[in-house]
Amino acid sequence: MLNSKVAVLTAYNAPLEMREYPVDEDLKPGEALARVEMAGICGTDVHLWKGELPIPLPVILGHESAGRIVKLGAGLERDWTGQPLAVGDRVVWASSLVCGECYYCRIKRTPTRCLKRKAYGISYCCNEAPHLRGGYSEWILLRAGSSIFKLPQALPTEAIVGAGCALNTALQGVERIGIEMGDNVVVQGAGPVGLAALAVALEHGAAKVVVVGGPEHRLKMALEFGAHGVVSLDEHKTAEARLAAVRAQVGEYGADVVLECVGHPSAVPEGFELCRDGGKYLVLGQYANAGNVEFNPHVITKKQLTVMGSWAFEPRHVLGAIEMLTRSHWKDLFAKQVTHRFSLDQANEALQTVRRLEAGKAVIVP
Ligand SMILES: [Zn+2]
Ligand SMILES: [Zn+2]
Predict the structure, then answer these.
(1) CA of 146 to the centre of ligand 2 (A)
(2) Mean local confidence (pLDDT), 47-68
(3) Is 181 among the domain residues?
(4) How far is the CA of 311 from the centre of ligand 2 (A)?
(5) Which ligand lies nearest the alpha carbon of 314?
(6) Alpha-carbon torsion, ordered 46, 41, 189, 332, to 10 deg
(7) Is 172 found in the same domain as 139?
(8) Where residue 73 sits, what CATH number does that domain have?
(9) Could you list the residue range(s) of the whole structural domain that residue 68 is in?
(10) For residue 15, how far is its CA from the centre of ligand 2 (angstroms)?
(11) What is the reported pLDDT for 331?
(12) Residue 7 sits in the same domain as residue 74
């Protein structure tokens, strides 16, 4: 019988534990068994490791992976877009599965808030069979109903994993807040979500995109991605200094749209100030619960701000990411983000590299 090595989060803030689980090759209808070829380490994995989101431990982390189909259950013959799916195909899959029947799925058409939503690498306790529901693993068993996408030949695995869930998240976020041709945009944060938001803003016809963040190597990457300017947190240490630096670049009235991709609560009130009157503010980076912040709601009223949140993404955004990368130079830029590669045995080291913000993007190659 086949076994799969896995890296498991068993306790918060503790090293991941290497385990082995049997690979159930007796697939039920609609299921797919894939060999994981590359698993991205997401900033969210660090938040999960720190215990900032409730999850059913122990969990095999890894929600942005690519792999190769090894076996298909009865009836699973096509990918999410309707293309024929076969053993040997290189694929990615949307990290979450929704029920399609609850209040949010059916009536409010907001499947990201599905009451029964479950995500690979996040919400499956790996003590329960069939165990293999996360990407830090040699093998993954995809449930019936998973949104699987066959990857175009022209799209390298590094590009899609390098873009990770950040690009899907940015695509839904920008779709929700809306960017118009000629808008001046500020992106707060130069991590993977910030860079992805920068790319999507440019795709939407933004006239100028300025990225506020750090560290220096991430700002350099932002400029390579096409940012018109960057504002370094190291250089501009106060919110006032950053506001002045942003206005020097986007004009005295402030930005039309500000995209928060930081995750630290203090970014939000600072972001309101970066908006022009009548501007729009998207809270995209607060995926984990990092606590409270004090702010004056008078600013929102007086400036007539539109403030919006966005949570995760739908399968169609995964398709959007695949298409955006495949047809353009973005695939090379996102592939270049993959700066650190680790074996599965080095999963702890990989996670710590991301925690210390040393990597562009760290991946596990099982
Ligand atoms: Zn993620
Ligand atoms: Zn639902």
Answers:
(1) 14
(2) 95
(3) yes
(4) 15
(5) 2
(6) 180
(7) no
(8) 3.90.180.10
(9) 3-151+329-364
(10) 34
(11) 98
(12) yes
Angle subtended at Cα 43 by Cα 45 and Cα 250, rounded to the nearest 5 degrees: 160
Instruction: Please give the pLDDT value at position 31.
Output: 98
Output the CA 116–ligand 2 centroid distance in Å.
5
How many angstroms separate the CA atoms of 228 and 217, rounded? 16
Please give the average per-residue pLDDT across 122-151, as a whole number: 97
Asked if 116 and 174 sit in the same domain, the reply is no
How deeply is 339 buried, as exposed, middle or buried, from its count of CB atoms within 10 A (0-12, 13-18, 19+)? middle
At a CB cut-off of 8 Å and minimum separation 6, what does 151 contact?
66, 89, 90, 91, 92, 157, 160, 322
Asked if pLDDT for residue 186 goes beyond 90, the answer is: yes
Domain of 274, CATH number, reads 3.40.50.720
pLDDT at 358: 84
Same domain, 357 and 269: no
Same domain, 84 and 210: no
- 250 domain residue, yes or no: yes
Q: Which ligand is nearest to the CA of 167?
A: 1
Cα of 246 vs centre of ligand 1, distance in Å, is: 28
Q: Confirm whether pTM is higher than 0.90.
A: yes
Q: How many CA atoms lie within 13 A of 262 on its CB side?
A: 23
| Ligand in closest contact with the CA of 192 | 1
221 C-alpha to center of ligand 1: Å? Answer: 19
Cα of 64 to ligand 1 centre, how many Å? 6
Do 305 and 334 share a domain, yes or no?
Answer: no
From ligand 1's centre to the CA of 254, what distance in Å?
Answer: 30
